Every structure is written in C-alpha cells, then in structure tokens.
Amino acid sequence: MVGVFYAVIPAGGSGTRLWPLSRAGHPKFLHTLTGTSASLLQATVDRLGQLAEPESTYVVTGVAHAAAVARQLPALPDANILVEPSPRDSCAAIGLAAAIIAARDPHAVMGSFAADHLVRDGDAFASAVRAATDGARDGLLMTVGITPTHPETGYGYLRCGEAVGAGQVRRVAEFTEKPPYEVAVSYVESGEYFWNASMFIWRVDVFLAELLRQQPQLHAGLMRIAHAWNGVDRERVLGEVWPTLPKISVDYAVMEGAAAAGLVGTVPGDFGWNDVGDFHTLGDVLERDERGNVVIESDDGAVGKSDILLHDTDRTVVVPRSGRLVSAVGVHDLIIVDTPDALLVCPRDRAQDVKKLVDSLKERGNPHV
Amino acid sequence: MVGVFYAVIPAGGSGTRLWPLSRAGHPKFLHTLTGTSASLLQATVDRLGQLAEPESTYVVTGVAHAAAVARQLPALPDANILVEPSPRDSCAAIGLAAAIIAARDPHAVMGSFAADHLVRDGDAFASAVRAATDGARDGLLMTVGITPTHPETGYGYLRCGEAVGAGQVRRVAEFTEKPPYEVAVSYVESGEYFWNASMFIWRVDVFLAELLRQQPQLHAGLMRIAHAWNGVDRERVLGEVWPTLPKISVDYAVMEGAAAAGLVGTVPGDFGWNDVGDFHTLGDVLERDERGNVVIESDDGAVGKSDILLHDTDRTVVVPRSGRLVSAVGVHDLIIVDTPDALLVCPRDRAQDVKKLVDSLKERGNPHV
Predict the structure, then answer these.
(1) 3-state secondary structure at position B231
(2) Residue B309: its chain A contacts at CB < 8 A?
(3) How much of chain A, in percent, has pLDDT values that exceed 70?
(4) β-pair partners for B200
(5) CB of A40 within 8 A of CB of A31?
(6) Are B312 and A350 a contacting pair at CB < 8 A?
(7) Which of A139, A166, A205, B39 is 20 to 30 A away from residue A93, measured at CA?
C-alpha cells in the first residue's frame, strides 16, 4: 500500500438488542462474544493490524467508556483515543477523526470500521480494504459491499454502477440508508444491491470537501475543534463547539448525497461479515453443536462456568453469565440470556424486538437497563 | 356424619416435574404454589378441617420432611405426624395410618388425600367426601371420580357400574391404574370412565381385610408395626420391619384387585380438582392475566419481589423466585422457572418431560436436584 493507512474505529452505541448482556454501562464492543478472549473492539484492532500501525489507529469513544477502551488497547498511544464529550452520532465521530488525521497528513487515506462487528476471514478483509484504497486514492468515498442474504431494514444498500479502473472498484449509483421493508425486498431480489458494511475508506481531504459541501455547519465545527486539538484550548473549544454539531449519521449526512453526485465507490467484500446486531445473528455466526445450539460462554472469568443442560433442544442460543444451571427441555429457535440480575427469553425471530423491551424498561425507569 | 372421620394425608414425593422449584430437599407439598400464603399441605389440612378434627388428622411423611411438616401444621398433635423410616410407596404409607387408626377405633372411616393437590371448591369437596362415607360405611373401598378432560396416562381410571343405595354411590366395575395412551384415549371417548383423584374413603377394617387378602406380607408387617406403635419397641420394630415391606402403590396393591372383586365404589367429584403435577397444569388452574399469562409469585418473602416484563407474550407460566428481572419478548405457551441457582425454559406441552431432565441431572450427580 502506498503511504500510511489510518484506521478509525468509532466505538459507540450500547447494543440495545443484545440486552441484558449488553448494557449502557458495558456496551457490546467491550464484550467477548465470540468464544475467544478478545472483546469485539480488541478483535477489530487486531484485524486492522495488517493495515495500520498502532500510531495510525484511532478509536473514537464516549466519556463513559474512554477508560475501558484505553485499558483494552494498551498498544494505542493515549493521543489516539479520541473522547467525545457527548454522543453526536457517527458523522461527528468519524469527522473528528478525519479532521485530526488531516491536520497530521492532509491527503492521508483513512478507513472507518465499526468496533462491534465480526469478520470471519481477516486476510480476505484486508485484501478488500486494500482494493478499496485504490478507489479512495482516485478520489472516491469507498465502501465495502456485502452480498445481501435477506431484506434487512437496518442496513444501508448500495446499487452498483460501472467499473472504475482495472481493479475491483465499482461506482455506486445509489446509496440508500435503512430502506422500508418492501424496498429492501425488491433490492435483494434485483441482485443489483450490496449491503453497506459500515466500512468507509477515503482520502481525508476528499471526505472533508464533501462534508463542507453537504454539511457546512458540521464541517466548520470540526475544523475549529481540529485546529485547537493540540493546543491548551482543546477542552474549552470541544466543550463549546461539540454540543452544537448536527447529530446525524455519516450515511445520511454524506454518503447518500455523495452517491447521488457520483462520488461513492465500492468493492465487494466476502469475508464472513456480521454486525452482531442481535442474539439471533450471533447464533448464526458462532460455532454450533450438532443440533444447531450455540452456547456463548464468557471468557472473562467473572462468574463460574455454568452448567448447561439442553434436552431435546434445537437451534437455541444460550448466553450463560450468572453461574447458574441453565436448562431447557423441548425448546427450539429460542434465545435465553441469563445474567446475574436479569433474564431474557425470546424466540430467535423476535430478536429485533429486544429493543422494544429495553425501551419499555427505560420508560419505567428500571435500573436493569 | 355418623362417628369420627379420620383424615390421612400421605406427604411424600418430591414433585419432580415441578423442578427446579420443587427439589428433593423442598418438595412440592411444602410450597406455596397457589398465590396464597398456605403451602399445598397446609391447604389440604385446612380443607379437611370441615370433616376431621386435628386429633383425628394424620400426616404420613419421610424423615427428611418430618420437621418441616410438624412446623407447618402446629395444630396437629405430635403423635399424628407419622414418620416413615424410608419411602416404601403409598400402600405402606396409607396402610400404616389405617393400622394405627384401627388400633384406636376398629371400625373407623378414614379418608386418604394427597398432600399436594389443589381443590378449588372446598365445600363441594366436603360434600363429595361425605357422600363417599355412605359407601364406605356399607363396606366399599370408596373413591372420588373426576370427569376426565384429556387422555392423561399418569392417572387411574374408574369404569362405573350400577348405583349402590339411594345416594350418589356407584360401584366401580374396573379400576385401571396408568393405562397406555391409546387405552386412555378410548376411556375418555367412551364417557364411561372417571379419573381417580387419589382420594380413598373406607372403613379401616374393610381396607385391612382386603390388604390381608391381596398383600398378606404387607398386612403382616403393618400389623406388627401397629402393635408396637405405642410401646417402647416402636423404633426397633419399625426399623426391622419397614424395610421389608413391599414397595407398591395402593392402586396396584389393593384397588385394582378390589374393583375386580366388586368391592370398590365411587362418587362423582366436581370441585375443581387438580393434581398440580407440572407447570402446565398449574398454569391452567391459577389466575391468569388477559393474555393468559400466569405469574406464580412466592409469598414466603425469601427473595424480593421480581420485576416481570412480558412483552407481546401469551399463555406463559412464569415462576420468579430469584428476585431478578424476568423478561420475555414474543413468547407463547412457555414455562419459565427462575430460581436462585437454576433456570428452566420449557414449552407448556413438554412440561411432563421436566422429569427426564431431572433424571438426567441425577445421572450426572448434579447438585441442583
């Protein structure tokens, strides 16, 4: 790869649909969910190790989790843990990193990767990102496209246009974030769409120019902050400006409009990507027994290993985190999450609705959220 | 009612299909399961209060639960808590009480009633038992017949014969304990059968004569024990004789053969009987919310009241006994039993199979049984 590659990892969001395992106080990206001892965040940094040095790897996180992030990633310099004063959605988070990197290296290529996704094949992932940097260097805002398997309404969809250059890069004719269900169905059936895997690879100058065009207020705020970043006024400026930044995702703020202007490209990614959005999805990607059951043990040693007894039980996802005996009889396609203070039982096809449950708990002021 | 009525309550069995609520160390009859503060045993004694004085009420229980039984029933005289040295099934337990009562009152009418069944209408229950005492006084081994609602294979079935006398008493033409499923189906479809509710009303002399005829060894052993009961040798004789008694239920030992000899009668009982054999059954008899869910809280104050959050959930039985938040989303017809050291999840139509699970735990030497 020509030049230094900068990796940016926005680590925000509590993973509501993974409640009661994931909590506001201990979000998804800090968890070991994959049967290894690495948290999703650590696994993300490890995976990016082929592409970026620790010195050019940045994590953007919130005040609540800055300490945990810093401790989980001892190889990263202190200065590379960017702490947001408050959550302002992904455009502010990614934009902050882009502005800071641009101040250091104006034409740098950076990639942004979620802290809490799973990738099965790290080498294939690195190859796809390298292929995307070709398009990024040529001035495209690059994405990685995943072949969709079902009409998921929580993702962005990329409609492919013509090839750009001799490599794998294709122009994106349309970028549609979170389409309605019927639209998602037609996209999947057409065979012309990829899922956007929330991976963005671009030259920081190209991204910031597009941000200036589409979101001038956000751009101006980030520039003020980046300008003050290495000075004595950093905290004062951050404190003043950050709360005024528009709260919007990068998909809506930049990508949809950039695609309409012909500025977005994509490369296909076939590396076992999964956003681990809910327990059903998690059950699909982890190792299962001969009856399709998945038991997601903890590796952190916080509780004793649970006894698990699944009798005549199929395709069930069990998350034992209380040290208690967890038993099921005659159950199929169920999710059972057993934590020290809360239990969840939910069919796998209702895994998305865990969010509603958490919303309901929040409304009641329940302390278990 | 003419003469003193003696009530006998065999309190044995751990209620395996109610695991993990019911344990070998804390069996079903000691539990509050009905939303009131009385245990099933206490409710049984209360219900019999219309028919028998505490002085003529006996409980037969095992060594493990003698103290708990005695404390739950402070009104019963010490001498009326009959403690078996080891479990020898129901014929030995009920026969012991019959022999001891016979030594006190040779022609007494006694009734035997399980310690862990539910009866909704106590007055109707008392009326049925009073009607049965007519047949008992006339020399029949009386039962109470419940109109069957489904082909249950765990019960005894009574085929009715001709009326006896002017009251409700009918002779039982056939007594079949635990028929195979196909047989149970044909019984229920015929409309000629009742379930035996494990209630037996008879003159102690009639029962002991029939025991002598069908089970002479059991009869002889019980006579030796009863003879020694009020003397200094009670414990020595019990210790010697009890382990030699045939281990057999009263249904097989006496009732099937007595019915074949024309000695069994029945009266219909329509008082909301339920044997609370499993969580599904329990869910059918207790008060449910508008979606058919039943939450069986504890009244014993051992744990804090649990938060329960059932979102889009129907006909589900929740037994919260750990003080944790119990939540379910999109679940129907499920059983969720949450105790401090073990969790069970099971569809209601598999409630019988909890026994298999417990057997499997026993095989493994698991301490949670």
Answers:
(1) coil
(2) 357, 360-361, 366
(3) 97
(4) B112, B143
(5) yes
(6) yes
(7) A139
